[in-house]
Amino acid sequence: MDKQSLFVQVANLEERIGELYVELGALKQKIVELLEENQRLSQENERWRNAVTHDDVLSSGRENLRRIYDEGFHICNLKYGSLRTEGECLFCMSFLNK
After folding, report:
1. Residue 54 — very low, low, confident or very high, per pLDDT cuts 50/70/90?
2. pLDDT in tens, 30-42
3. What is the pTM (predicted TM-score) of this model?
4. C-alpha to C-alpha distances, 16 to 10, 22, 28, 57, nearest whole angstrom
């Protein structure tokens, strides 16, 4: 193997290493972007989880109030807990329809 051929092989190898270094840098940047996006999505997911849990609690509370009303008691702030004797209460109904 002559010196010229050896020099060409080393130059080609050096060029390939340079290309791999550039590709490695691009991959590293992509990983950073993906990690940042993952963190952002995790935080957003946690906020949604908390919102859904909060909505479930509200929904469950409304269901309980509906059940109390259906059992014949007032749920409005005017007569809360007292027996409904005159039929439908507009205040209770407006509260349930919110």
Report:
1. low
2. 999 999 999 999 9
3. 0.50
4. 10, 10, 18, 61
φ, ψ of residue 83 to 5 degrees: the values are -70, 135
Q: What is the mean pLDDT of the chain?
A: 87
Per the DSSP assignment, residues forming a β-bridge with 73 are 83
The rounded distance, in Å, linking the Cα atoms of 90 and 98 is 12
What lies within 8 Å, CB to CB, of 73 at 6+ separation is: 81, 82, 83, 84
CA of 43: how far to CAs of 38, 39, 54, 66, in Å?
9, 6, 17, 35
| Partner residues linked to 83 by β-bridges | 73
Domain range annotation of the chain: 3-96
Whether 69 and 92 have beta carbons less than 8 Å apart is answered as yes
